């Protein structure tokens, strides 16, 4: 089966954004592994079906992709663009992927040396196919129907905007003026039932955005700029987003408290348990998605503003509290050292950030990497 799509949605204009798991490599890696395991099953000898990941590598623009080159350094290969494929192979068990049509650093992906030198010899991959599907990138991110929203809102102030789309849009007027916005991705035959459950209060929504929604297209880099450190994704973009990575509201409110860690230090091979208390302070029971980010204030190499390293979706009854524990692995704190050609755990202070989104941090702590 030609799935999952392990490419990263580093630009919301990409024409196949709806197929991917968003802009974050850690999140995409986890979801890729889960999807691969779900497709192939857990039988020790037989697969239910063979998972073929796509599109290796860095295929997140469509226009002229047959001749374009996605250019970036070795560190971004291992930490970002190749990460979900790596996880899908070594943890998920996928043994095939589809090579992309674009070039990587000037060499076509279909014949690039990394296919053999890295994915086969290092990761254990053993089958490569290619794909013929074509799409187009978006040239605008504004919503034409927002003019209609303005007219409806003028007649009835109690207007709810329901946005059915698998792509982010720049809708600053609606954010500032419409009382409620419900974003629904294209979910085939069950879309209507899911929509009704939320609108009529049968279910409290708890979805989270897997991409940053910018306020304007002017905040986006050129689509062929694959160096995300230039200001792309929540990890490096310093603009204030319209809606942040990880954002999502429900019909209740939550309070975070009591951050504790099982260790004050972390070294190679360790797993530290990060625990907090989550209280539903509203009148309705609901799920909450607790997100764990890290920051490296003492790093000697360029690091993200913050980076997701753990998350857990939990159900909290109205008026009650639960304890949530998220494991933090030392392996997930490593960066790729281009001189040593390996992942390295850098010594120093690591800030721990717990929140409801990348822009809504509720608790902070720290741990020392040794």
Concise synopsis of the structure shown:
The protein is α/β, with parallel strands linked by helices and 370 residues long. The protein has helices spanning 25-40, 74-81, 83-90, 114-120, 146-155, 172-177, 191-199, 233-236; strands at 52-56, 69-70, 96-99, 103-104, 107-108, 128-130, 160-164, 180-184, 254-261, 265-266, 271-280, 286-295, 307-316, 321-329, 335-337, 342-344, 348-357, 360-369. 18% of the residues lie in helices and 28% in strands.
Mean pLDDT: 96
Rg is: 21 Å
Helical residues, percent? 10-25%
* Straight-line N-to-C gap: 43 Å
Instruction: Categorize the overall geometry.
Output: globular
| CATH topology annotation of the largest domain | Immunoglobulin-like
Count of DSSP H/I helices: 8
CATH architecture of the largest domain: Sandwich
- Largest sheet, if any? 5 strands, mixed
Oligomer: single chain
**Number of DSSP E strands:** 18
**Low-confidence stretches at least 5 residues in length (pLDDT < 50)?**
none
- What structural category arises from helix and sheet content? alpha/beta
CATH C-level class of the largest domain? Mainly Beta
**How many domains, as an integer?**
3
Strand content: 25-35%
- What is the assigned CATH homologous superfamily of the largest domain? Immunoglobulins
Widest sheet: strand order? 10-18-17-12-13
Order of helices and strands: HEEHHEEEHEHEHEHHEEEEEEEEEE
Overview of the molecule:
By secondary structure, this protein is α/β, with parallel strands linked by helices. It folds into three domains: 17-130, no CATH class; 146-236, no CATH class; 254-369, Immunoglobulin-like (Sandwich). Helices cover 18% and strands 28% of the residues. The protein contains eight helices and 18 strands. It has a five-stranded mixed β-sheet with strand order 10-18-17-12-13, with no helix packed on it. A three-stranded parallel β-sheet has the order 1-3-6, covered by helices on one side. Strands 2-4-5 form a three-stranded mixed β-sheet, with no helix packed on it. The longest helix has 16 residues, at 25-40.
